[in-house]
Specification:
454 residues, single chain, 17 helices, Rossmann fold, six-stranded parallel β-sheet, alpha/beta, globular
Amino acid sequence: MSLFRRFWRCLKENGLRYTLVHMWERWGRWVREKTVMRDYYGGVRGQIDRFQKEYPARPKRTAVHMVWWNVKALFKRHEAPRRAPAKRAGPAKSAPDYRLTLTKDELNIGFLLNGGLGDFLIEANYIYKFRERYGWDHIRIDVFAHNSFSAAQSIFRPGSVIDGLYPEEGYSGRFRDYDLFIHISRYPDVKRRQLDRIAELAPEIVEYVFLCERFRAENDRFFSKPGITDGQSAMLSILKGIKRPQQPDVYGFLGVTERYEYPLGIYADEHGYLAELGLDGRPFITLHRGCDTRYSENSVKLWPVRYYDILIRLLKERYPELILVQIGVSHDRCLDMEGIDLDLVEQTNLEQVKILLKHSVLHIDGEGGMVHLRHALCAQPSVVMFGPTSPEFFGYEENVNLRGKGCDIWCEWAVRGWMEKCLRGCAVPPCMASLVPEHVFQAVVKTLERGRDR
C-alpha cells in the first residue's frame, strides 16, 4: 500500500490529529532505525550468517557486501550494548539465570535454536521428546536462542523440560564446555560430543549421536547449504510421509508426531484479559496477515489485503454476532483490514496473543507462526491460505488448508528471494490471486457450522 493511501485511510478512520501523531511516530522510528546502531558486533554476526546462507560458496561477494555494510555503519551513531546482569532478581522462573551452571555430575547438553516463532515451537516439542526418552536423571539441558529471545522466553520456562534459557549472543564461547552441543535449524547438527562423558552418564544417548551424524553424512547438502536447501528438505519429508513438526526427528528415532506434546503454558490471566477487551464469553474470530520479520507486507506468502476486506464483509453479513479481531506485530507489516471490530495490531504481547488464539472460535491466516502457535496451544481449527509453501508439509490435520490453482506446485526456495517476489514476475502471485475470497468464505462457513454441530 502506498504512503498516500495509508495516510488517507488512517485520516478517514481516526481523524487528522491522530493521523499526524501516528505518521510522526513512524517517521521517528524510521529515522532511528537508519541512523542508530545499537549492537555493532551483533549486527556483524547477523550479516555474516545472512551472507553465509545466501552465498555459501562465494566468500568474495560476501566480503564486498560486508565492506559496504561497514561503510554505512561508520556514519551511524552507535549505542553501547546492554550487558546482561550477573543474576536476574525475583523468583520468576521465566527469567534466565545468565550464569551457566554446568557440573561434572551431570551430562551437560546444549541446544542452539534457529528460526522464528513457528520454528521455536517445533524445536521445543522436539526437545520435549528428547527429554521424554532420556529422562531427567544426570542430564542438564540448556537452550540458546539465535534470535527472537523474547519469543523464546514465552515458550521455554526453565525448571520444567529445560534447565536454562539464554540468548546466543555473549555465550557462543561457552558452547565448547558442553558434553553434547546440537544446533537445530531443520535437522539436528551435532557440533560437539564428548563420547566418554556421554557413555559414562547416559550411554543410551550414544546411539542418538551416531544416528544424527549418519543422517548428516547421508544428507550433507542440508547442512553445508542451509536455507537454500529447505525446499529440498521439505520435498524429502513429503516423500517420506512426514510433516514439518517431525522433520528434526531423523529416522523417526524419538517418535515425534504431528501432535504437539510440549507443555506450552500461558503466563497471564486469560479471562481477565478477555474481560478487559469485552471478549470474555463472547464468540470471536482472530485474523492475521503477516510473516517473517525480514520481509515486508508484500511477501509472496501473504494473501492480498483487499481479499481480506472482501472476506470480512461477507463474514459480517453472515455472522453479525461474531467479533472480528485483527492481531499483528506492527501496522507497517500487518496492513489494516476494513471492517474489523477490534484492531489489536501493535497492542499485544505474546502472552496476550496466546490467549486470543486459544479462545477464538476460528483463526484465519496465512502459513506462519500464529498457525503453529494455535496448534500448540489448543489444536483448534484455523483456515490457512497457502501460496509458495506446501500444505502437505506445513498443514495441520485440524486446519482447513487452502491453496489456489494459479500455480501447479509450490516454490519454496526454488530461487533466491522466493519470499520477496513472485518468480513468475507477477505483482500478485498467481497462487494467492487464484484463492478468491468467496472460496475462503465457504471454507470458513463449513468450519464454523461443523464446530456448532459438535
